[in-house]
Design goal:
The protein has 296 residues and is of the alpha/beta class. The protein has two domains: 60 residues, Helix Hairpins (Orthogonal Bundle), CATH 1.10.287; 225 residues, ATP synthase, F1 complex, gamma subunit (Pyruvate Kinase, Chain: A, domain 1), CATH 3.40.1380. Helix content is 60%, strand content 13%. Strands 3-2-1-4-5 form a five-stranded mixed β-sheet, with helices on both faces. Helix 3 links the parallel strand 2 and strand 3. Helix 1 runs antiparallel to helix 6.
Length: 296
């Protein structure tokens, strides 16, 4: 049985840990509010841009060709995996890594390459032999704020890989979409080639955009040369914003649970310490009474 000194030391250690978890929860709560506001502001723009460009692409003639629109083979995929740089966020990173594994298993006959945004995804897939990590971007989401210029840099790298490397057939992105503090949803979307509206299997999305008729004031080549790279930049930027908000929400929830568990553990240890003290006091009283009785 542990003595009183050991229990006191453990109580002190747990209290110190509880102070850290409470502080991390408060920091995440402050970052979450800013990240959530930026996500809410970016969603309408990103969604409308996808609809408009998808509709424009559907109205192009069959003889029009663009590297970011043309369908290719189906043997080599590039997966952009957006994870966190740090842990202590519950199942945030684990769910993303599992989604990446599930994607690789569903496409077992294809060559899968990972472009990791975040340290946790890179470290996880670097240890696997069936998936190769061909690129990494660290520190973009760890500071709690995402810059559009950083997302644009990642997008330019992806476009360069897709257009100049003839072997890559499709590009996908996996990230956590922010729903609430307690809920995040893992999303797997196709980035390249850009999906035309007529190829989209979503009935709701198709109905919403099929009635729109756009008049081109410039040739399609000029329009898509400007809009398609900006579309990829916007999608990367939104995914990184969603990831930051989801990470802070997951960390806030995890640290709140850790603080509560620490409080329960402190209560249990304190109760155990009091029982040991009471037992020691009772033993001493019995010894004194017994000694007095013998002396009499």
């Amino acid at each position: 049985m542990a003595n009183l000194l050991d229990i006191r030391r453990r109580i002190k250690s747990v209290k110190n840990t509880q102070q850290i978890t409470k502080a991390m929860k408060m920091v995440s709560a402050a970052k979450l509010k800013r990240a959530q506001d930026r996500v809410v502001a970016a969603r309408p723009f990103a969604g409308k841009m996808i609809d408009v460009i998808g509709n424009l692409a559907a109205q192009t003639t069959d003889d029009y060709s663009h590297p970011l629109l043309d369908a290719r083979g189906d043997s080599r995929y590039l997966v952009v995996l957006v994870t966190a740089d740090k842990g202590l966020a519950g199942a945030f990173n684990t769910n993303l890594n599992k989604a990446g594994l599930a994607f690789a298993r569903e496409n077992a006959g294809k060559k899968i390459e990972i472009l990791a945004i975040g340290r946790k995804g890179r470290d996880f897939f670097r240890r696997r032999e069936d998936v190769s990590v061909t690129g990494e971007y660290l520190g973009l989401t760890g500071k709690g704020r995402v810059e559009y210029s950083e997302a644009a840099e990642v997008a330019r790298d992806i476009i360069k890989r897709f257009t100049e490397d003839e072997g890559i057939d499709k590009v996908f992105i996996i990230y956590n979409e922010f729903k609430s503090v307690l809920q995040q949803r893992v999303v797997v979307d196709q980035l390249l080639p850009v999906v035309r509206v007529e190829e989209n299997t979503s009935d709701t999305n198709a109905d919403a955009t099929s009635t729109v008729d756009y008049i081109y004031e410039q040739p399609p080549a000029e329009i898509f040369a400007q809009l398609l790279p900006r579309l990829i930049e916007t999608q990367i930027y939104r995914a990184m914003l969603e990831s930051v908000a989801s990470e802070q929400g997951a960390r806030m929830t995890a640290m709140d649970s850790a603080s509560k568990n620490a409080g329960e553990l402190i209560g249990t240890l304190t109760l155990n310490m009091n029982r040991i003290r009471q037992a020691a006091i009772t033993t001493e009283i019995i010894e004194v009474v017994s000694g007095s009785a013998v002396a009499v």
